[in-house]
Amino acid sequence: MGYPDPYTNTREEFTRRFLSIPIPDFAHEEWADEVTKIKPLFEKLAFHEAMQPNLQQTYMTPAASKNRVYFMWDFVGRTLGLLYNKVHPGLPKDMSKQEAEAWEDVVGRTFFSGKLILDDKPGLLNEMVEMAYPDQNGKHPEFGEEVLALARALSP
């Protein structure tokens, strides 16, 4: 099964495709652990009420609501895409320099995802979203306890 077309498929279709990719039997335990940690967060963010205005838009359409839930859905989704597309699931000892760098990037982005979601005083995530999208100033939907619990598991 190929990847959806970003110009014709919706964000929901992209999300469902990434969520449907199984962990290969030969996957290294650490690779599988990263997938296992970020997939549930990606799903909760995608189907969060603050993402509803964006889900049925094509992936390449500018988001209708560029809020912090959307920002984190995009960040976590890109992390998952990096893991699926740039890092061999077996984490071979002889991986290329690019693959090793991608693996380090995935691990760091996963940890940073948790920190961004949990940091709400004053909130680096809120500041980043407000700098990029000034119309979001002071408009920060709550993530909810399920998302916060998943974020805690990323940044122990």
Secondary-structure map:
Elements: H1 11-20, H2 29-46, H3 52-55, H4 68-86, H5 97-118, H6 124-132, H7 145-154
Helix pairs in contact: 1-2, 2-4, 2-7, 4-5, 5-7
Q: Strand fraction band?
A: under 5%
Largest sheet: none
Question: Overall pLDDT, averaged?
Answer: 94
Shape designation: globular
Taken in chain order, the helices and strands follow as HHHHHHH
Beta strands, count? 0
List low-confidence stretches.
Answer: none
Q: Over the alpha carbons, how many angstroms does the gyration radius reach?
A: 16 Å
Measured distance between first and last alpha carbons: 35 Å
Q: Count of helices? A: 7
SS-derived structural category: mainly alpha
Q: Helical amount among residues, as a percent range?
A: 55-70%
How would you describe the oligomerization state of the chains in this entry? single chain
Structural description of this entry:
By secondary structure, the protein is mostly helical. The protein has seven helices and no strands. The protein has helices spanning 11-20, 29-46, 52-55, 68-86, 97-118, 124-132, 145-154. Helix 4 (68-86) runs antiparallel to helix 5. The longest helix has 22 residues, at 97-118. The radius of gyration is 16 Å and the shape is globular. The N and C termini lie far apart (35 Å). 29% of the residues are buried. The mean pLDDT is 94.
